[in-house]
Each structure stands twice: as structure tokens, then as C-alpha cells.
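Handout, section 4.2: multi-component inputs.
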Amino acid sequence: MGAADDRLERVTMAHGAGGRAAARLVQERFLPHLANPALAPLDDGALLELSGRLAISTDAFVVEPLFFPGGDIGKLAVCGTLNDVAMCGAVPRALSAAFVLEEGLPLEELERVVASLGATARAAGVPVVTGDTKVVPRGKADRLFIATTGLGERLPGVEVGGRLARPGDRVLVSGPLGDHGAAILACRAGIALSGELRSDCAAVSAAVVALLAAVPGVHCLRDPTRGGLAAVLHEITLASGVGLELEEARVPVSPATRAACELLGLDPLGLACEGRFVAILPEELAGRALELLRGRPECPGPLDIGRVVAEHPGRVVLATAIGGRRLLDLPEGEPLPRIC
Amino acid sequence: MGAADDRLERVTMAHGAGGRAAARLVQERFLPHLANPALAPLDDGALLELSGRLAISTDAFVVEPLFFPGGDIGKLAVCGTLNDVAMCGAVPRALSAAFVLEEGLPLEELERVVASLGATARAAGVPVVTGDTKVVPRGKADRLFIATTGLGERLPGVEVGGRLARPGDRVLVSGPLGDHGAAILACRAGIALSGELRSDCAAVSAAVVALLAAVPGVHCLRDPTRGGLAAVLHEITLASGVGLELEEARVPVSPATRAACELLGLDPLGLACEGRFVAILPEELAGRALELLRGRPECPGPLDIGRVVAEHPGRVVLATAIGGRRLLDLPEGEPLPRIC
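Output:
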């Protein structure tokens, strides 16, 4: 089948049915982008050699559109899961990927997604060791969905968790917030400033591992995805029984994201990131941590944005630039559906 | 919210959006059925203690209808993945589950699926340690899809794989073939004999682990899901570079499944099972293996159905009852879409 014909080919029900057509789809469209020794035998699962203390995380990805400024569903499906594994204090070692494809999806589009997924995993040094593909009839899914699971080896001596924030701790963020949500929103709405907006979609696991290795004693790590900074900070206040006080002027938001949010009446702190993280750690470690993060390419502008307090447990208070205080509300839901 | 109101409640876009509504959905509809210590912290992932040699398997489940005689998508999502982990020669230890929900799905229906998934995992002694839920708008998915990933500890000294079949080996099956495919088909077509047809959906991992422990030296293990016995045997002949000769009269098919297949012009050997497995092993071990499997509740009628040969590599030949020989063809695809 020549390259010119490829664009005409589409996913058919037979591609999901476990016979010759399914085998060809895997051989021709998946393996060239994912090849690695663990995947090669194509048995019912894959064999791994990992040391004993592990972390596992899983996510389904249904982002719309499939391709957006700064990424696509394949890149997102790898970054989102690697980041979640890293947030458990673990070094990601293996990924699995399960695809649900809609009949009629152009195979060229599928292959672009698989290629992006494979390239992102390879760049992070984490193989996709096993996978699955299902097909549903036209109109029963929206082009394609991906569920990934990540496995990591926990760093010795590291214990992080949403329950471990303590009064006096500092709250660090790794870069500007809300860019992924703003980029998807602009992309869908076709608004004029979309050219400047790019998703922050990236694997931050290497930066997190470097931080945990160099600065032992981090209490909490979270990536502010759905619901943005607001959602993760609320989860932490509830799990730890503490309050948070942030200086609004120090919370980083890019000019393009801020402009888009003002236009649309949204709070950037409620918008998803896909390449940022929040670290909460004892005050005496904050300086070293910031210094380390400033040297990492995954952290475009790390900042100390506030502190953990014993007062008002469950609440996140923003001290505004003009001397006021406002409550950072936990939204009923992310303002955008299908952000990831 | 009283029980009477529950049926009126439906999945909304906010349930997938990482805010209060999403947190309530998890608390009220998922945790009561899945609770276990690893899941409890609800961090971005879960922490596990497993020994070093692992197997991992992942599958997406899109079966239609969601509920069928003998099972439902929740039970299937657990059994399918536990069985795949067992086919790697491993004891399943942990599961993850990612859900894609269609806006408008009744919450009562979701909860029935989650309850079934939780009960099946609990019965198998394998906790669901982490998960995810996404929601897509009405018409962008078909009610609900689930992707599960299973992790297992490999049994010491066991090496199984599709490449390891050797001439002289015997081919065992654990029970009648094609019941899952026939039950789904009858269910969808509403054909009269559907009352007798039940999916074989079941976790066979405990039987497989018992077999591997008692009879070291098994070469291949496979569960004949999509594409049925025909697909898995073809995969093995190709991977091992061998041929297979089966005695057609010894290949077990239940009367109800045989009747449904005759009515519809289908070959039961091309229909999916979800609670059966094939074991290929040296002839001298076959007797002990059969004896062991006969004592297991997961194996309703284990049989020796044929042998591996050096001749006609890549082909599966059936010796018919009347003395003829026919080739078991690898179908282009499973005759039924969305079988699992």
C-alpha cells in the first residue's frame, strides 16, 4: 500500500476484532512507533524487572480536539501519566496504552497520534510495554480515546502525599498556570489570540525526580490538571486538615492566558495545566528547591507562591495585590469539558 | 439523596471535570464498591509493594450490551485483565481502572457496573488500587467504556510465551469454547435460544497459578478472547514456527453455543471466550495437568484436543470425525463487533 493511498484508509470494525486486520493494524501503525524489547513478543501482557516499591497511576484521555497548539492526545496520554507517577515520588519505568477507536477514523490520523505518543515516551526514556486496541462503530465514540497506565519505582526514603502538608510549609509552583486549559479553550472557540497560547503539555518527571533526590523532605507533590491549581490545593487542604495562604501577585500566569481568561470571564487558577507541578515542603528547604528547579528546562519560572497555615482548614486564601483577601473557590467542575 | 431519587440522576459533564461534582461521584458511586487501603489516599496514583519480576497487561472494554447473560462490562473488565496477567505466568496482585462515561448515563447503571467490577476483583483477591473517570458529551461515547490494567508477580522459574510451543507438545483447553461470543450474539439478536446461552466470563487466574505451580514446564498459555480458539492457535503457530493438529470431535462446544452457531452460520472456534484458557505443554505433563484442571471450579470440562507438529508451520489442521482434514482458518476479524 503506497503512501498516497494511506490517507484514504480508515479504521474499520475488523481492525478491532482480533483477526488478520487487527494484526496488520498493530504491525503497520503501532509497532513502528513503539518498538521496544518488552513489547516485541506481543503476548497477552509484558514482562518487567522492577524493584519492589512501586507506584501505579492510570488516566483516560478524551481531549477534544485531538491536536492542539503544544501537543496532541498521544503526547498528553504519556505526559499526564508520567507526571502522575512522578507525583507519587517514583521514577517512571513502563507505560501501557489502551486505545478506543471510532470506525471511520483516518489511519493517517491514528498513526500521527501513535507516533507522537511513541516519541514522547521515548524522549522520557519510558517504554510502552503493552497495549490494546478496540473499535466501536461510527458515532459510538469521538475519533479516539486513550487510557494509559504508568508504573514507577519509588525513590528510597521518599514519602509524599496529599495528607502530609504541615503548617509553616511553603508552596512552590514550577511555572505559569492554566496554559493547557486556555490553549484548548482558545483552540475550540477559535478566538483571535489563540496564536500566542500553547499548552504546557510536557513530562515533568525528570525534574521531580531530581528535586526529590537533591532535596529530601518534600511533603506533597501534585500536578494541577483538571480543576487547575484551585482543585489540587483544595484537595491538599482537606486531606491534610490545613489552610493555605497565597500571595496572588506571585502566582504566575502567562500574559496570553491571562488575556484569554479576562476575555472569557474565567479564573486561570481553575484551568488545567499538563506540564506543571506544585511542591509543598518545609520552609527551610524552599530556597534549595527553587534553586534546583530554576536550572531545569521543565520548569519555566518556578516560584514560591505562599504557605501552609493551621488556620481555616480546608480553605485557600489569596492575599490580593491591593491588600485585600479573597477565597480561592473550588469550582463545581472544570469550566471546560474534555480538557484531557 | 434518597434511593428513590437515585434512578433519576444521570452523569453530567461536571462529573468528569475534577471539581466538587467529580469528587462526589467518586465518594458516592465508586469508593463504596472498591474500598481498599491502597486506593484510600486518593492521590494521583497508588503505592504498591511487589516483588521484582512482574507482568503487566492492559485492555479496553467496549462490550455492547453492558449487561449480558453471565456478566457485564464491569465483571468482564476485571476477568479479562486478570486472565491476561495469568497468561504471562504471573499471580495478579493489583488492578487499575479508567472509565469513559457518556453524559446522560443513569448513575444507577454506572453504580451497578462499578459494584460488579468491585465484587469480581474482591472475589479474586486483587484490589483496584487506582482509577480515573472522564465524561464525554451525549453521543460522543456509547454509555461507558472501561480500560483496566493488571499487575502480577511472575511465578519463579516459569517461562511461558507464544514462541515456546514445540513439536510433540499437547494442546489442552479448560472448557467449552465460544460461549461468550455466542451469548453476546444471541443477546443482541434477541434469538430464541438465548435463554440457554451464558457467557463464560470468569477469572481463571487461580486455576492457572495452581497449574503452573503443580506442573512446571508449561510452554504456552493463552485465553481465546477476540477471534476465539482459531486466533490464538494461529498466533502460536506463527510465533513458534510450528503446525497444530486438532481432533475436531474432542474440541468442546456446548450444545447451546453449537445450535446458535449453526443457526447463524458461524464457527464456534472463531468466537470469543472470556473464562477459558489454552495450555500447550510437553506430552509427558499432559496427564497430570488434566487431572489437576479437572479438580478446579474454573475449568468445566478440561480436554486434550490435539498436538503440536513440525509440519505445515503456521497452520492449524482439524481431523474431522468422518476421517477428513480441514484447515482451521484465521478469520479476517471476529464476526461480532464489541464482543469485549
